[in-house]
């Protein structure tokens, strides 16, 4: 089954691929999040990318208060054949939601902090290099995951990770966005940990009751590989890799965190691994915080994870191009 992360890498290309008619990818509309990672730090990054895209590209700035779906529809109505999300994973997720199922190619210009989705595709992180790779790219239809209708490209989770994101947001607001503060938010969250969640999982019809500090639903084989976690096979089979963390105490959580950092996590000892194309999660608490691609929101149980039937026409990058002399 198609895996964008695998096919985007050089060793996955086929030397004798049949010739295909050229795909019209222009005009291009770039939807840029002003507050996203590189956009906020390097104001000239988007200008360098736009210089590569040329006259067939139009730049649209947006923020989280705007209706992104309406902005994407306006760009498509204006003739755009490719919509590119300029920002981080959260921006890519939001734009993917806006163009899902529509007859337009979707690309990502990595201008965020972590850029897991773009890195998994093999895109360069320098703006102009990424723009050249996108111009040489080819669209492929892929299936993506949703939780209660919300698209996510990398992962969604319940439990301690959404609480870490919330704590990090509070710490950043008080002390600024520093790496030390990010680590401190993890320590504070772990220290406040009281007990694991009780939940019932229905994975492709099979039911089991679990107690866990973290439920992690992955759709990025690249992200699992970074942290030495299993589950890539499920993702390549168009399913979710569902990781159910093990840990009853604060001490066990700190041990799990250390094993994650040192890439020594083991299934059966540190987490249980499930593969599912449809997952329903019922939690003992009626309302929980759910995280998806670095964003978060409170929502009501049960939580339904589903592989979306509508395709996303993902623009896979072409071979890396050298800048013109």
From TrEMBL:
This protein is called: DAGKc domain-containing protein
Domain of life of the organism in this record? Bacteria
Tell me the Gene3D superfamilies matching this sequence: 2.60.200.40, Probable inorganic polyphosphate/atp-NAD kinase, domain 1
Q: Name one GO molecular function term.
A: kinase activity
Q: Where is the composition biased (Basic and acidic residues)?
A: 1-12
Protein's organism? Pseudooceanicola albus
InterPro entries assigned to the protein according to its UniProt record, in alphabetical order: ATP-NAD_kinase_N, Diacylglycerol_kinase_cat_dom, NAD/diacylglycerol_kinase_sf
Disordered: region residues: 1-20
Which parts of the sequence belong to the DAGKc domain? 23-151
């Amino acid at each position: 089954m198609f895996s964008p992360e695998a096919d985007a890498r050089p060793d996955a290309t086929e030397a004798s691929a049949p010739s295909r008619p050229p795909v019209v990818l222009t005009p291009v509309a770039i939807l840029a999040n002003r507050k996203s990672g590189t956009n906020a730090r390097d104001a000239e990054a988007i200008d360098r990318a736009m210089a590569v895209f040329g006259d067939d590209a139009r730049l649209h700035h947006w923020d989280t208060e705007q209706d992104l779906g309406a902005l994407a529809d306006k760009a498509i109505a204006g003739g755009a054949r490719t919509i590119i999300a300029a920002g981080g994973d959260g921006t890519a997720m939001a734009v993917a939601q806006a163009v899902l199922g529509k007859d337009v190619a979707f690309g990502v210009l990595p201008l965020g902090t972590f850029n897991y989705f773009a890195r998994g595709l093999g895109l360069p992180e320098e703006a102009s290099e990424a723009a050249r790779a996108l111009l040489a790219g080819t669209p492929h239809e892929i299936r993506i995951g949703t939780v209660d209708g919300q698209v996510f490209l990398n992962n969604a989770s319940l439990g301690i990770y959404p609480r870490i994101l919330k704590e990090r947001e509070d710490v950043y607001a008080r002390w600024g966005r520093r790496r030390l503060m990010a680590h401190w938010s993890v320590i504070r969250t772990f220290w406040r940990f009281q007990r694991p969640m009780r939940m019932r999982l229905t994975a492709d019809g099979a039911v089991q009751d679990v107690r866990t500090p973290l439920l992690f639903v992955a759709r990025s084989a690249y992200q699992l590989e970074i942290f030495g976690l299993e589950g890539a096979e499920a993702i390549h089979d168009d399913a979710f890799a569902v990781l159910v963390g093990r840990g009853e105490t604060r001490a066990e959580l700190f041990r799990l965190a250390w094993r994650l950092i040192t890439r020594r996590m083991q299934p059966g000892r540190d987490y249980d691994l499930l593969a599912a194309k449809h997952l329903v999660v019922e939690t003992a608490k009626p309302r929980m915080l759910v995280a998806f691609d670095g964003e978060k929101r409170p929502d009501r149980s049960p939580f339904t994870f589903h592989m979306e039937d509508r395709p996303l026409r993902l623009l896979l990058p072409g071979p890396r191009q050298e800048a013109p002399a």
